[in-house]
Every structure is written in C-alpha cells, then in structure tokens.
Write a structure and sequence with these properties.
The protein is of the alpha/beta class and 272 residues long. It has a single domain (2-271), classed as Alpha/Beta hydrolase fold, catalytic domain (Rossmann fold, 3-Layer(aba) Sandwich), CATH 3.40.50. 42% of the residues lie in helices and 17% in strands. α9 links the parallel β7 and β8. The protein starts with a strand and ends with a helix.
Length: 272
C-alpha cells in the first residue's frame, strides 16, 4: 500500500490484509538500514487477528520516497503526518532500535492519539562509537559487517521466522546493502546512526507519554544493551506511567531471533 505523505510516496505493508481504519491500528517502525520486512511475522499475524497494520518504510528508505530523516524528531513528525494521511485518528506504535526512539518521540508529541507504545531493542542515550560512525561513511560494507556481528546472538532463524535454517546474518547483510543502495542521494546508514547518537530527549518524552509502554529487550544485545534502557524505565515508573518489561534471551534483532516470543509480548500488551 502506498500513501502520499508530505508530498512523497510512502510504502506501508498491511500484513496481506486490506487497509481498514475501523480496526485498531498498529504502526511498525524499523531501525537503521532496515525496512518493513523485519516485522514479517509480527505484522502479518496481527493483520490476521483483528488489527489494522501499517509496517512502513521510512522516507528515503527502500520503497519510500522523500527525504530520509536526519533526526529522531524529524522522523517523529513524519509518523504524525503518516497517521493523518492514512486517516487514522489513534494508533499503537511499535519501534525497533532507531525506530523505538522515533516511536517514543512521536508518542510524546501525539499524546492521546497513541494508544500503546512498544520499544524493541531500545537504549537511551543510543550512542554510536566514532569508529562505527566514520566507517559508515568510508567503509559501509565493513560497518555493515560490524553491525550484523554485534546485533545477533544466532546465525540461524527459528522455524517461525524466515524458515528453518535461514542464514540470518547473510539475510541481514543483504537487507542492509539493499536499503543503502535504495537511496543514491543520501547515505542513510550514516544519517540514521547520527540521528540515534544525537537524540537526547528520551527521558523528557517518557514523562510526557499518556499511553502504556512495553520494553522488549535482548539479554544478549550488544548493540543496545538491556541495561541501557534502565534510565527510560526508571523515568517512566517514577512519573507514574504504566511500564512493562519483557527481556528475551537474544541479541538486538528480537523480531527474527525470537519471533514468537516478541510477537506474543506485543500481542498480549496490545490486548491487555
């Protein structure tokens, strides 16, 4: 499905079901050098179990046009415009890594328009090493290999993800290359990392939320270590927010390393 958002075509995967604003809507937001496909199981399951799904490609990524966001704040503005373009008044936001920061900032800005917020593989601050930032410009292939090594705790996907024996490292490399090539004007690898590295409004955003929030963290995550979400969790609890935490025995790509457990955590939270 394509939507015209801020004058540019935006691709949204609807889970194989027709778009229906009468159903509760869930928006899935991917991370750096990813696209809608990382949510394959979760988006399709929810679309077939009573939810309206929009798993998007962020602007300037993969199948979406427009200018790639240079900051978390810019991407959050885009999420608001996306909801308007889709005719959706209220929605749940589910974000991974950079997408989790985008979801957090968007939920803080949109307040009552957001019913639930799920932060998968989130950290704050989400600092990126100077070496990796530079490599994303000078040697993107090397940087992509570094990210894929640190991101994963397994090399083969479980049967419920991409099929038994799928080489998730190789799939991650192929996806990253494809997304990077999709935008010849902007290095979305470096731009996304800079957006993560520079975002500093997380704790303020947590205090501003009006919806319940679920953290889905990886106990073996080396990119966004589970302990790096503690500041957000503590801030939310201190501000009286409804905060849940699910810690899974995997790395940074919870959606493909533990697809079932990630899905069920999201599903149960949305249905609570």
């Amino acid at each position: 499905m394509e939507l015209l958002v801020k004058g540019a075509k935006t691709y949204c995967y609807t889970g194989g079901k027709p778009f229906d604003t009468a159903k509760p809507t869930v928006v899935f937001i991917h991370g750096v050098l990813n696209d809608h496909s990382v949510w394959a199981l979760q988006s399709r399951y929810l679309a077939n179990h009573g939810f309206n799904v929009l798993a998007l490609d962020l602007p300037g990524h993969a199948r979406s046009g427009g200018e790639a966001p240079a900051s978390v704040e810019q991407a959050a503005d885009f999420i608001a415009a996306l909801l308007d373009a889709a005719g959706v008044q209220r929605a749940a936001l589910v974000g991974h890594s950079w997408g989790a920061l985008v979801g957090l900032e968007a939920a803080a800005r949109l307040k009552e328009r957001i019913t639930h917020l799920v932060l998968v593989g989130v950290a704050h601050p989400m600092k990126v090493s100077p070496a990796l930032l530079q490599a994303s410009i000078d040697e993107p292939e090397k940087a992509l290999k570094m990210v894929n090594v640190f991101s994963r705790s397994t090399l083969a996907a479980p049967p419920s993800a991409l099929g038994p024996g799928t080489w998730v490292y190789g799939a991650g490399m192929a996806l990253g290359r494809r997304v990077l090539r999709s935008n010849p004007k902007v290095n979305v690898f470096h731009r996304g990392f800079v957006a993560c590295d520079s975002y500093a409004n997380g704790e303020v955003a947590m205090k501003t939320l009006t919806c319940p929030v679920l953290f889905v963290l990886g106990a073996l995550d080396q990119m966004a270590q589970a302990r790096a979400a503690k500041g957000l969790i503590d801030t939310g609890k201190a501000a009286g927010k409804a905060v849940r935490v699910a810690t899974l025995p995997v790395g940074h790509h919870q959606m493909t390393e533990t697809p079932d457990a990630t899905l069920f955590a999201i599903r149960d939270f949305l249905q609570a």
